[in-house]
Amino acid sequence: MAKAKGFYIVLVLLVATLAYAQLIGLERGGVLSLEPAAFLPTLAGWQGEEASLRDFEEALLKPDSHLYLRYATGQELGPVYVFLGYFRDQRIGVQIHSPINCLPGSGWNLVRAEEYEPPRLGFRVRRLVAERSGEYREVYYWFVTASGTTSSEYRLKLAQLKSGLLLRSKDALFVRISVSGTGDEVLEHMSAFIPEFARTLNAFLGASGWEEKQAVLRSR
Q1: 176 DSSP β-pair partners
Q2: Alpha-carbon distances, residue 36 vs 134, 148, 153, 171, 212 (angstroms)
Q3: H helix or E strand, kind and range, residue 199
Q4: For the chain, does the N or the C end have fewer beta carbons within 10 angstroms?
Q5: pLDDT tens figures, 162-182
Q6: What is the dihedral of CA 17, 20, 25, 28, to 10 degrees?
Q7: Could you tell me if 100 and 153 are in contact, meaning their C-beta atoms sit under 8 angstroms apart?
Q8: Residue 60 belongs to what domain range?
Q9: CA dist 32 to 2, 89, 173, 203, Å?
């Protein structure tokens, strides 16, 4: 009986702690403003321009700030589309929509799903190959949080839980890169593009002060 009573006490305290962390965590951290100018200069052969999400996509994703970019080259391969979505906090109704769930929900069949590390990148991204009515698309994505960079939805959830319990900022940046087609030529194309874009993104995050703010929060 005493053991059962102790278990329920611990359970109640845990639930109360999680609820408190969720409430307090909602207002921690400022919004990261994603400025297109930092990403639009020519990127090692790719010419970038700002694009627009469709209204229903923006309403579905619900980021606190976002940027949608289109990069093209003189090659025969189609343009590369980059979506950056910043989420100040994740809670019911405001969640990062992972492509591994959204693509099947939009009628795409997942042909391949794997973790992939492009040369000179330094971390792994998630690579998806999807098909719909004979059309193929490759999608690469990862998440940036106070705990670091990950391509795993599971590790993202753990990072959010840890930050909430420690009353730290639970904000996250979602990076999604997509291109039409599939095959060795597309993979080679993306293996060159992703590290170049990641360097530009890291430089932007450093200049914005977001990384310094995260470091301060981690040291508390």
Answers
A1: 83, 141
A2: 34, 23, 27, 20, 21
A3: helix 184-208
A4: N
A5: 666 665 667 888 999 999 999
A6: -120
A7: yes
A8: 2-219
A9: 49, 12, 9, 14
